[in-house]
Amino acid sequence: MALEQHAYITVYQHAVVIWLQSTNVHYVLGEAEQKVFAAQVFSMLPDDSPFFNEDYVRKLLDILPDKRPPLGGVAVEWSKNPSRRSWIGGREWQFGVSNKVSIQHFENGIVVGPLPSSHAIEKGWRIFAILKDEWHSRATPDGLTPPFKPPFP
């Protein structure tokens, strides 16, 4: 089992995206069918990239004012191929985690967590099992204290 230095979970209308810094992999997890739609390395971006600016991305991708646009690597990929990414819908919330998220690699996938269940971290945590074609998550036991200090920008 390895400890991830930084991870990010972003929940969209129809998907959950988990980013792991050590591999720069984004896992795009479809909510409705529990399918893994992408597990790929997106472009590594500098912190001052315009793809982290909501106004820039909203205009570039023509996102409606009542929806929150994707940011970072997801925004880059969406701009390259809108028909393959726009299905995830508007961004609902995101949470950056620094200092130790557990990740375990197996022959057919990974287990990662704990990651927040909502933008309000006191509402609980989830552990994710991400396989080649499907994913599952479970709430952590009550009282579990995550081994990290959230959040990071």
Overall description:
- The chain has 153 residues and is mainly beta.
- It has one domain.
- It is 14% helix and 42% strand.
- It is built from three helices and eight strands.
- The protein has helices spanning 54-61, 72-80, 82-85, and strands spanning 2-12, 15-20, 25-30, 36-41, 91-106, 109-116, 125-131, 135-139.
- It has an eight-stranded antiparallel beta sheet, with no helix packed on it.
- The longest helix has 9 residues, at 72-80.
Quick structural gist:
The chain has helices at residues 54-61, 72-80, 82-85, and strands spanning 2-12, 15-20, 25-30, 36-41, 91-106, 109-116, 125-131, 135-139.
List its salient traits:
mainly beta; 8-stranded antiparallel sheet; 3 helices; 8 strands; 14% helix; disordered C terminus
Produce the secondary structure layout.
Blueprint: E1 2-12, E2 15-20, E3 25-30, E4 36-41, H1 54-61, H2 72-80, H3 82-85, E5 91-106, E6 109-116, E7 125-131, E8 135-139
Global morphology:
globular
Mean pLDDT: 81
Supply Rg: 15 Å
End-to-end Cα distance: 26 Å
Q: Give helix and strand order, one letter per element, not per position.
A: EEEEHHHEEEE
Task: Give the tally of structural domains.
Answer: 1
Provide the β-strand percentage band.
35-45%
* Largest sheet geometry: 8 strands, antiparallel
Low-confidence stretches: 148-153
Portion in helices: 10-25%
Going by helix content, strand content and strand pairing, the class is mainly beta
Overall number of strands = 8
Walk across the major sheet and give the strand order: 4-3-2-1-5-6-7-8
Secondary structure tally, helices: 3
